[in-house]
Amino acid sequence: MIFNSFEFIFLFLPIVLIVYFLLNKWNFTIAKSWLLVSSFFFYGYWSPAYLPLIFLSLAVNFLTGHYLSKNHPDSRRKTMLTLGILFNAVLLGYFKYYDFFAENVNVLFDANIELKNALLPLAISFYTFQQIAYLVDSYRKETSEYNFLNYSLFVTFFPQLIAGPIVHHSQVMDQFQSPDNQRFQSKNVALGLFVFSIGLFKKVVIADTFAVWANKGYSMSESLTFVDSWLTTLAYTFQLYFDFSGYSDMAIGLGLLFNIHLPRNFFSPYKATSIQDFWRRWHITLSNFLTTYIYIPLGGNRKGRTRTYLNIFIVFLVSGFWHGAGWTFIIWGVMHGMASMVNRAWASSGRALSKPIAWLLTFLFVHLSWVFFRSPDLLTAVSVLRSMAGFNGVLLPKEFIQFLDLPIGSVLLFRFELGAPFIEIAIWTIIALVLVLFTKNSIQLRDDFTPKPWIAVTTACLFIYSATRLQQVSEFLYFNF
Prior knowledge:
It contains 21 helices and no strands. The protein has 481 residues and is mainly alpha-helical. The relative contact order is 0.11. The chain crosses the membrane at residues 6-23, 52-68, 80-98, 118-136, 148-169, 189-214, 250-267, 279-296, 308-335, 356-373, 418-438.
């Protein structure tokens, strides 16, 4: 089940919400049990076959965390932590990376390892990282004594289950136990609907509009020329942002309906003036996880410059591989690792760029790196980059040719290439750029929120208009990761 569907918005969500608060008046434990069962239903709506997998993961990680939090000998606890992390790594590796490694071994050694072609279980990358963090914190004795119900709800709470944010136990588990959160709170409902409507609009109106042009362009990468390749890649740059940040907004809004405050995951990343600044703003919960559980344990910046650069590189290599089992994702991670090392060296030199130049360089780098992130293979990525560099010709759109009164015989017709006139795509691109650069983001709007009639009207308009677009249901991009 996905957030941008009729069955979720007009059936599942109202039933779960109403029954939850009615049960809270009777018994808080039963209410939480209802929310947990609802989350399992949400997860298994499309593919019940993977419900046993998440049940197994929850049970093993909870029991392991329970053992680690006790006063057992350190050697046993360390062994148990290692086994717990290996369990999660093997689970993720089998479903997400087995075929990738098998394919590469077959190519390198002329082997004939049979591919599994297993369907990637929804959310496995997210709930695996979430539970690894819990195990490490249990080993450090930074967790409280939680029961299995609260733990399961922390992992599977449906607003953040499928594509994050990656929630830390300290951020939400106490909220599920708080008596204050048992009561229906109208302010949280108003705020939740406001943030949810912003996210829904981002997804079904903005992201899905850009998706048409991005998908069309990447499907014909070999025939793209200079102008259409740049508009294709810009379409994906904005599609990805509005798709993923829209999901995060909807997750935060849904959490507020249940009086649960989920962490922010985006904070205007395309305003960043350095790659380090970008990663403080983009997929914040993943960045925090990688910093806390990989970068710092590796030594962070405490073991000299060379080791610091190596640690940075490792973090981004892991980030790239976490996103997908493919060389395009690995190259994307390597690019960001190299850029982060260059950024750190530049900052330590004491020199500085002007803010506009720093922004432009950062945005262009992020934009170019998304080409590898989006491309299904390296050949497609190289083909698109060649087009962006002008190697496939620099043909002007029909509208420019007509405006300049030039011969139109050899002109590439944009309408037949990306499915819309050049002017329409250009206007949407400019609007998106203005939105990400010069307007408040949804977190700032949430923090400044005060219930007013005009805000209620705006929220209603965003929601109603978005609802009219729900006939064309589309998955969120990060469902694939």
